[in-house]
Amino acid sequence: MADVQIIRIETLDDPRLEAYTKLTERQLRSVLEPEKGIFIAESGKVIERAVEAGLEPVSFLLGERWLEQLSPLLDKVADAHPELEIPVFVGAMDLLEQLTGFSVTRGALAAFRRPPLADPRAFLARCACACSRALSIIPMSVRSFAPPPRSMSTASW
Questions:
Q1: Which of 81, 90, 86 lies closest to 9 in space, CA to CA?
Q2: Which residues lie below 8 Å from residue 50, measured CB to CB, with a gap of 6+?
């Protein structure tokens, strides 16, 4: 993992962990500077989906037992972002429990940069296109339902 730095942590007081420990959702969104906004992905599966979507990771916070399991994904991140040095903070599971206040079963968190907002015109154009395709399917599906036989009353439906 050339560009991924494994950093062992013993305490949550490290200022590099502020995205996980101190920032509110509003601060993470960075209302005043949206291009600097981040979000926290929770669980290996959600982190994997964010990486597959091409989102840029800022850092990872993993319970000790998750490091080996997520190593292939971290290798993939290093290959996809060779220009970045991405810290992977690794701590004991009880340390992560202090962060959340309860037993952490997923034990994997990652901070990602928020993708830029879609252009509203392009978004609405895609929605209109999708809606027109859906509406063109409806008449065919309605025609496929045969009326009930005359011997059946509608009460038996």
A1: 90
A2: 41, 57, 110, 112
Determine contact, residues 40/28, Cβ cutoff 8 Å.
Answer: yes
pTM of the model: 0.69
Q: What is the DSSP string of 103-145?
A: --SS-EEEEEEPPPPPPHHHHHHHHHHHHHHHHHHHHHHHHTS
**Distance between CA atoms of 17 and 99, rounded to whole angstroms?**
10
Cα gap 114→138, rounded to integer Å: 36
What distance, in Å, lies between the first and last C-alpha atoms of the chain? 62
pLDDT of 37 higher than 50: yes
And the tokens for 131?
């809606």
For residue 93, what is the DSSP state? H
